[in-house]
Amino acid sequence: MAAPVMDTCHVFCCANRTPNVVSWGRGGLIAFGTCNSVALYNPQVLQKKEKVEFVHLVVQFTACAVCSGHSGPVCAVDAMSLSSSQLLVASASSDSTVKLWMCSSDTGKIRREIITSLAVPVLACGGDDSRVHLYVQLNGQFQRLLTLTGHEDWIRCVEWATKDGELWLASCSQDCLIRVWRLFAKTATEPDQQTDAVIKMKEDVFQVSGDVFAVTLETVLAGHENWVYGVHWQPPCVKGDLVEQPLKLLSASMDKTMILWGPEEDSGMWVELVRVGEVGGNTLGFYGCQMSPDGFMILAHAFHGALHLWHCDSNQGEWRPSVVISGHFGAVQDLSWDPEGEFIITVGSDQTTRLFTPWTRKGCSEITWHEISRPQIHGYDMQCLTMVGRFQFVSGADEKVLRVFKAPRNFVENFANISCTSLEKLLGCNEIADLPEGASTPALGLSNKAVFQGDLASQSPQQDSEDFNSLSDQYKESYFQSLKLTEPPKEDDLLQNTLWPEVQKLTNLLVDAGVKNLHDLRVSQASKPEHAAILLWSTTSWKQLQSLPCHSLTVTQMAFSPNGHLLLAVSRDRTWSLWRQGNPDSDTGHFSLYANTSKDTAVHTRIIWSCDWSSDSKYFVTSSRDKKVIIWGHCGSGDSVGECEGESVTPCSSVLDVGDSATAVSICPYLCSDQSFLLAVGLENGKIALYKWRPLEDLSSGSDWSKCGETDACQSHTLTVKRLRWRPRPGRAGHGGNEERAWVQLASAGADHVVKIFNIKISAL
Predict the structure, then answer these.
(1) Triad 345, 299, 269: Cα angle to 5°
(2) Any keyword tRNA processing (predicted)?
(3) 178, 286, 396, 701: which could form a disulfide with 221 (CB 3.0–4.6 Å)?
């Protein structure tokens, strides 16, 4: 089988914002829901260094069955193997039912039975009645035999464990408590008489097929200060020929902590063994927890989707936080590479801006991508961004405001450490002495304020409330702490200590933003012609330079030509417009309309979603909801667009039908070995297709286009592709060597909350 054209370099994603959406398998893989997909992830701690390997989305597996029958959202599933060929699956739904499904590997078919609770073969169900109900299968049907009371609020999680022939059940609740129950068989009749020296716990007794069983409350664990959402027993371990179940229970709470519980060896009393998590801050806590098969790593997933991983240092016995993958928990709307192609910045509907870069570890050849900064945490859904130089970007959100951010000194220093790049090379002749150290967001504010060294030095710790001279002393606006990083930061630091200061604010309606030669910025959104103008701003004075009216509806995307002479815009009105600068050598040279399509001359029949330029500025491409991709230019002239007086801008390609709404398009800045152009087209169904195009005189046959690859099921997004961007430099980020010129990298952003980076060997196309 031939090697795939596109190789997935990395996938950035996080867990869904729902309870207990993460599971750690006995094989070492972590499965978690991300949007409408399931992701598999393998974290390992090797030789005291963090190795993070992302395994593709679960769609690479073959679905053996689809269980349909619930009338509401399915909120919990569990399964157990009855034999080598039979699997019993239970699913609980908000439709107030639980269904049991029997899967047979012999037939590959599933049949269902409707019941009212969850767990097998002893079924435990916790609900909003604050009770745990136990069901046992009798004569082929599950019947409720017992109800366990004690919790005072909704039950959030129940989990079984088996030890020495007894069943242990842990339940947690919104009453902040955890209850551990023990279910065992009564083999002999207990004496009726009791002595004062014996204190017995209350037993709930029931019979199953003539056998007598009892349930007792083993312990009540109180240690969390907020709702407890998840409990998880340490997985059984194999010792020789025996399988042992450790009596260790992990719990996760909205108080932002995880606690590992266990009985003392001498007294048998359950106590807190380990507590990890956050203290303070303004974020919510954990939705669930899991433990690795060997018991040396624990994982929590938080309200905002972030994974929190700790590993136990086997030498010192201490639990330490570990580097873990991260990503957006909302649709990713836009992304941009830095001019040198060493990192990408993304924005999403989760109201965050995130920066990802390869981590180059000293003494280790493996390179992995990680989030190292969260420059902007906003109060509005983010929609667009563009880089303005090496360490400066502009972003726009639903608030209809553009904000300009510049990297602080602390980020530049840490980026140099993580990427193993010299600080002098990063900054060039620019000095960092005048840069702020970091940034912080005031309470109830949206603007990141710069924090300088003097601000940090003036912050003296207050010992008690009497030391506060005023409310401003008691409630400090700056929470920033300078970091010295040699590895990617943890979630706590990403939230608080990696913000970038805001240096400018531009007010106007917007959906997209872009930069021409680091001089001008444009922005537009409209439902009326008078509001559909393109606005040009100076990135030196940050003053509005010009308004360019042409379109009647929202401008969906814009792109400056690589030579900086032209501005291309596409719109919801199904047309494109091309603007030429009067004096390209002047920063203030005004743009005038050079060419455009109208309703009468438009080739596209639906919204034009995306556009891009070839690296030589001779051609530009448009993609539309009508499934068409078209390349435009001065056909046959060989001149750059706008430099051939008297020549009109017409289609230079045949119409490419990509089979689905083409929501994103990008032209690779480097030619293929046969001197053809390489294009990436993103589709509404989540696929990304690669096409080669070369100009031909005869376009009737459509032979100017050739498809050279596309993402397979496990590589594709599961929802609309929102943005595609090629790396502006050849090679793979973080790698070196002459052989890297054979590679190019493509970054994609999707409505499925995922950002992907693909490696493509352009020399082999």
Answers:
(1) 155
(2) yes
(3) 178
Token pair listed for 418: 């993580």
Cα–Cα distance for residue pair 352/383, rounded to 1 Å = 10
C-alpha distances in angstroms, 431 versus 132, 412, 435, 451, 519? 64, 11, 8, 17, 21
Contact 741, 342 (CB under 8 A): no
CA dihedral of residues 732, 737, 742, 745 (deg, nearest 10): 10
pLDDT at 345 over 80: yes
- Higher confidence at residue 722 or residue 52? 722
What distances in angstroms separate CA 234 from CA 181, 237, 306, one per listed residue? Answer: 16, 9, 22
Please give the DSSP secondary-structure letter assigned to residue 549. -
Count of CB atoms within 10 A of residue 80's CB? 13
Reference 500, options 451, 540, 539; nearest CA is 451
Which one-letter amino acid corresponds to residue 569?
Answer: A
Per DSSP (E only), the strands in 3-69 are 6-12, 22-24, 30-34, 37-46, 49-57
- The amino acid that residue 151 corresponds to is H
pLDDT digits (tens, 9 = 90+) for 175-215: 999 999 999 988 755 555 555 555 667 888 888 877 888 99
What DSSP letter does each residue of 561-597 carry, written as one string?
A: -TTSSEEEEEETTS-EEEEEES-TTSTTPPEEEEEE-
Cα separation, 580 vs 145, whole angstroms: 80
Q: Tell me, what DSSP letter sits at residue 244?
A: E
Q: How far apart are CA 557 and CA 533, in angstroms?
A: 13
- Residue 291 pLDDT class (50, 70, 90 cuts): very high
Question: What are 468-484's pLDDT values in tens digits?
Answer: 555 445 445 557 889 99
Q: What share of the chain is helix, strand, coil (3-state, %, to 5)?
A: 5, 45, 50
Q: Summarize pLDDT for 234-290 with one digit per residue, the tens.
A: 999 888 888 899 999 999 999 999 999 999 988 999 999 999 997 666 678 999 999
- pTM, two decimal places: 0.90
Between vectors from CA 199 to CA 198 and to CA 203, what angle results, nearest 5°?
Answer: 120
Q: Which two tokens stand for residue 584?
A: 């390209």
Helix (H) or strand (E) holding 494: helix 491-496
| Sequence-separated (6 or more) residues with CB below 8 Å from residue 746 | 6, 666, 668, 680, 688, 724, 725, 726, 727, 757, 758, 760
Q: Cα Rg for the chain, rounded, in angstroms? A: 30
Is pLDDT at 709 greater than 90 in this prediction?
yes
